[in-house]
Amino acid sequence: METFRLFRLIALGALGLGAGLLLSRPFVVQDPSGPGQLDNPAAHAREPIRLIAANDRVTVADFGFKDEQGKTHRLSELVGQRPILIHFWATWCVPCLPELPELDGVAARDGQRLTLLPLSLDRDALTVARTFLDGKHLAALAVFAPETDAPLPQALPTSILVDKSGKVAWTTAGAHPWGGADLDAALKALD
């Protein structure tokens, strides 16, 4: 009986120590450069966009999504106009946050050559994500929410670059530095 009690105390102490260490780690990326600007750690470990060979590409799944006015659209409505960058993210996803200012820049700079489709996986996404982006002064980024038929990624952030014909040209799970020349080169190659 006494041995069991000692074992229980040791186990509870180990659990408490583990939880304390886990909770003492920072959960938020701090912004050293000012409001609305976050340093993208992915930029330090740059993995350039390498397009999938055209004959090896597969058709992207068609799915529904809602815009900020609550109107439902289909991905297939966007195919054929220009390349599409589908970007799954959430306000609670720490690796997603540093990408947002760069994606805002992409939306402002490349909006005529690229359809950017940032899909927020937040609960009540249209309201929560818009409020979050407005608080970070990221006005160029639109907010979209996937419908229930959307194929959800296994990791966040996840990005899928779709060519004009609706084929997946590149995909990545994890943060990507969107401010580099590789996106420009990929868009030129897809033109």
General description of the model:
The protein is an alpha+beta fold. It has a single domain, classed as Glutaredoxin (3-Layer(aba) Sandwich), CATH 3.40.30. 29% of the residues lie in helices and 16% in strands. The chain has 4 helices and 7 strands, in the order H-E-E-E-H-E-H-E-E-E-H. The chain has helices spanning 2-23, 99-110, 125-135, 181-190, and strands spanning 64-66, 72-74, 84-89, 115-120, 145-146, 158-162, 168-173. A 4-stranded mixed sheet has the order 4-3-6-7. It has a 3-stranded antiparallel sheet with strand order 2-1-5, with no helix packed on it. Strand 6 and strand 7 form a beta hairpin. The protein is globular, with a radius of gyration of 20 Å. The relative contact order is 0.20.
Q: Based on DSSP secondary structure assignment, what is the total number of beta strands? A: 7
Examine the secondary-structure arrangement and name the CATH architecture: 3-Layer(aba) Sandwich
What is the CATH C-level name?
A: Alpha Beta
Number of domains: 1
Number of helices: 4
Q: In angstroms, what is the radius of gyration?
A: 20 Å
Provide the low-confidence segments as ranges. 14-38
What name does CATH use for the topology? Answer: Glutaredoxin
| Sequence of strands across the biggest β-sheet | 4-3-6-7
Pattern of helices and strands? HEEEHEHEEEH
End-to-end CA span:
75 Å
Mean pLDDT: 83
Helix share bin: 25-40%
CATH superfamily name? Answer: Glutaredoxin
Q: How large a portion of the residues is in β-strands, by DSSP E? A: 15-25%
What is the approximate shape?
A: globular
Q: Which class best fits the helix and strand makeup?
A: alpha+beta
Major β-sheet profile:
4 strands, mixed
